[in-house]
């Protein structure tokens, strides 16, 4: 049966890895069926209709055989003793097919609903999980790998629920019923057939398996060419800037040639396989025909019975072949559900705890206290990124973190957001350890203006409202004004409705930053993290951004990761970080007078550079 691409997963790539079919893997994967449970009534109805449609389908060759017998002048009677002539038998045949058509419609109707709803629920659960998984998970898994869970793995399962399962059931019914019916027609011929056919089918199966392995090589080669296309298109600016267009074309061509070579080779075997199937299986049918014809000649079998017999034999061959193919599909599905269940079983961040009624929402003053904080990234456990960090900020104070690249400045603030678990020490906010807060509640009170602002595809309005999704237009406009962003937004013909992001207009670095500042203003957090952009802006833009930042920092505890020392002269305290430690701290005046200090040196360096 051809695979249909008419579901929400489209055509599923056959590159979904498989697992070995063992009792354990099977049992583990069956847990995915709990997503079918809410739709069990529809599922059972679908199964019942499937049984009926498979049953009526099985009656077809039988009745067709009777038609041939009637044509040969034999008397055909129903079990009730009513004699049927050719016309009536043809009508019965038509009735059988009509019922088969109606049952099939019902089966598809119910199974599609079950598969669409089930798959929707699995996708929802997965996406929900993606959103709540901790940051380290995303650092240890590639984005492509994660998204393929929600696309191809789920698609594989959808295929199973909508097609494979039905097909599997139908093949089994066909196999069992056909075998019984041919036995009834003629035990002699059946035994002869069963002695020859299964051998051929077994051979075909073994042959088919080795071909699948070759097909996998082709797919791998094709995947490699796709990687080249994706990478180069994503970095097309780099390709052009290095004038490597022809180099890439050459690389793509040679990779494509390899894929074609592999495809041709595997298709050579495929061709051999197809002719084996044709010659072998049809040869088998000829053998059965020959033996059957002898039996008809000897009067041991009617012509009609022979016709039914041959059709059933073809059915048996098709279903044995189909079951072999299904083995691969079942393996893929088991693999897919195992991987999905694995992700669903990953521990989420303890966010969004249900709020207990009557308890006022958390309010945060903004005192911050780092005590002996030590940290290693889970992906690089051998590198101590932070060693014994101690500092304190009173609510409303502004501090700046400065130091060479890679010193650990960003890491210090990421820990405040609790993106990672500390390796040692503790962080207190308002005198309480951060781990004791509800993560979502706490993060709601921390605002961040990142180094590189990522705008989501959508309007400027939506991007600003990301800081407070239920903000009114007046609030959004006010925030944009305070962020010095209103000027450029109102200069666009569509104003706040201007579309930005991949399909919209591109905002400049300074404009993007001001959108980020407007976002943070709307969020109105008690604690603010400003990660200064390393790329410098022109002085006009710089002034606007700086003004917006000053506005934003008012009355909030602010931590500035500073790259340009000129912007932090007014902060209450500067922490100089080097190699994961605080090596100096004090005000700008204090530090700049310490001639041998790192800060004074950095200051000198920047002065010389500018
Ligand atoms: N997600 C991560 N996984 C593993 N290592 C990381 C990760 N992020 C940063 N590091 C490492 O941690 C160290 C400190 O990085 P961090 O980004 O905190 O430095 P920084 O002082 O903010 O640097 P810059 O000024 O260049 O932004 C570096 O050695 C860096 O390679």
Automatic annotation (TrEMBL):
Domain ABC transporter span(s) in chain numbering: 368-604
SUPFAM superfamilies: ABC transporter transmembrane region, P-loop containing nucleoside triphosphate hydrolases
Signal peptide stretch: none
Membrane spanning stretches: 43-64, 89-110, 168-185, 191-208, 268-290, 302-323
Membrane topology of the entry: Multi-pass membrane protein
Coarse class of the protein's main subcellular location: membrane
Domain of life: Bacteria
SMART domains: AAA
Domain ABC transmembrane type-1, residue spans: 44-332
Pfam families per record: ABC_membrane (PF00664), ABC_tran (PF00005)
Subcellular location: Cell membrane
InterPro entries: AAA+_ATPase (IPR003593), ABC1_TM_dom (IPR011527), ABC1_TM_sf (IPR036640), ABC_transporter-like_ATP-bd (IPR003439), ABC_transporter-like_CS (IPR017871), P-loop_NTPase (IPR027417), Type_1_exporter (IPR039421)
Molecular function terms from GO: ABC-type oligopeptide transporter activity; ATP binding; ATP hydrolysis activity
One annotated GO biological process: oligopeptide export from mitochondrion
GO CC entries: plasma membrane
Keywords, ordered alphabetically: ATP-binding, Membrane, Nucleotide-binding, Transmembrane, Transmembrane helix
PANTHER family found in the cross-reference section: ATP-BINDING CASSETTE SUB-FAMILY B MEMBER 10, MITOCHONDRIAL, ATP-DEPENDENT PERMEASE MDL1, MITOCHONDRIAL
Protein name stated in the entry: ATP-binding cassette domain-containing protein
Species of the source: Hymenobacter jejuensis
């Amino acid at each position: 049966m051809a695979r249909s691409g008419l579901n929400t997963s489209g055509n599923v790539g056959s590159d979904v890895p498989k697992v070995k079919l063992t009792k354990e893997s099977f049992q583990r994967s069956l847990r995915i069926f709990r997503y079918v449970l809410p739709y069990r009534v529809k599922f059972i109805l679908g199964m019942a209709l499937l049984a009926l449609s498979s049953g009526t389908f099985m009656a077809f060759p039988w009745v067709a055989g009777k038609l041939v017998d009637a044509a040969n002048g034999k008397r055909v009677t129903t079990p009730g003793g009513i004699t049927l002539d050719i016309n009536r038998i043809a009508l019965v045949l038509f009735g059988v097919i009509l019922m088969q058509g109606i049952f099939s419609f019902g089966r598809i109707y119910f199974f599609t609903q079950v598969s669409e709803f089930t798959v929707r629920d699995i996708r929802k659960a997965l996406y929900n999980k993606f959103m709540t998984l901790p940051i380290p998970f995303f650092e240890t898994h590639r984005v492509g790998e994660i998204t393929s869970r929600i696309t191809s793995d789920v698609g594989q399962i959808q295929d199973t629920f909508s097609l494979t399962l039905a097909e599997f059931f139908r093949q089994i019914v066909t196999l069992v019923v056909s075998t019984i019916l041919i036995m009834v027609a003629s035990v002699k011929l059946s035994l002869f057939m069963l002695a020859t056919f299964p051998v051929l089918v077994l051979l075909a199966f073994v042959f088919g398996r080795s071909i699948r392995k070759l097909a996998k090589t082709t797919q791998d080669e094709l995947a490699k060419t796709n990687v080249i296309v994706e990478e180069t298109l994503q970095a097309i600016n780099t390709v052009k800037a290095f004038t490597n267009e022809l180099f890439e074309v050459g690389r793509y061509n040679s990779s494509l040639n390899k894929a074609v070579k592999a495809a041709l080779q595997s298709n050579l075997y495929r061709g051999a396989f197809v002719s084996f199937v044709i010659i072998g299986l049809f040869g088998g049918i000829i053998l059965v025909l020959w033996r059957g014809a002898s039996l008809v000649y000897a009067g041991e079998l009617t012509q009609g019975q022979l016709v039914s017999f041959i059709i059933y034999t073809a059915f048996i061959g098709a279903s044995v072949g189909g079951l072999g193919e299904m083995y691969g599909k079942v393996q893929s599905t088991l693999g897919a559900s195992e991987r999905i269940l694995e992700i669903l079983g990953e521990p989420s961040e303890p966010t969004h705890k249900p709020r207990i009624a009557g308890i006022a929402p958390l309010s945060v003053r903004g005192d911050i206290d780092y005590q002996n904080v030590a940290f290693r990234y889970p992906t690089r456990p051998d590198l101590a990124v932070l060693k014994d960090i101690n500092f304190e900020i009173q609510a409303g104070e502004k501090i700046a973190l400065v130091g060479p690249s890679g010193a650990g400045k960003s890491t210090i603030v990421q820990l405040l957001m609790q993106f990672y678990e500390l390796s040692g020490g503790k962080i207190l906010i308002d005198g309480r350890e951060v781990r004791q807060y509800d993560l979502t509640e706490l993060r709601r009170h921390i605002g961040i203006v990142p180094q590189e602002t990522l705008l989501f595809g959508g309007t400027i309005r939506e991007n600003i409202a990301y800081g407070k999704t239920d903000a009114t237009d007046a609030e959004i406009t006010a925030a944009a004004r305070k962020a010095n962003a209103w000027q450029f937004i109102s200069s666009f013909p569509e104003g706040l409705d201007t579309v930005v992001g991949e399909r919209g207009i591109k905002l400049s670095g300074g404009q993007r930053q001001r959108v980020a500042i407007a976002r943070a203003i709307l969020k109105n957090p008690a604690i603010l993290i400003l990660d200064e952009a390393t790329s410098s802006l022109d002085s006009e833009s710089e002034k606007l951004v700086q003004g917006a930042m000053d506005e934003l920092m008012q009355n909030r505890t602010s931590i500035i990761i500073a790259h340009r020392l000129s912007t932090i002269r007014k902060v209450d305290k500067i922490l100089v970080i080097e190699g994961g430690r605080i090596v100096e701290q004090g005000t700008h005046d204090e530090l700049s007078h310490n001639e041998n200090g790192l800060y004074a040196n950095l200051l000198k360096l920047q002065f010389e550079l500018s």
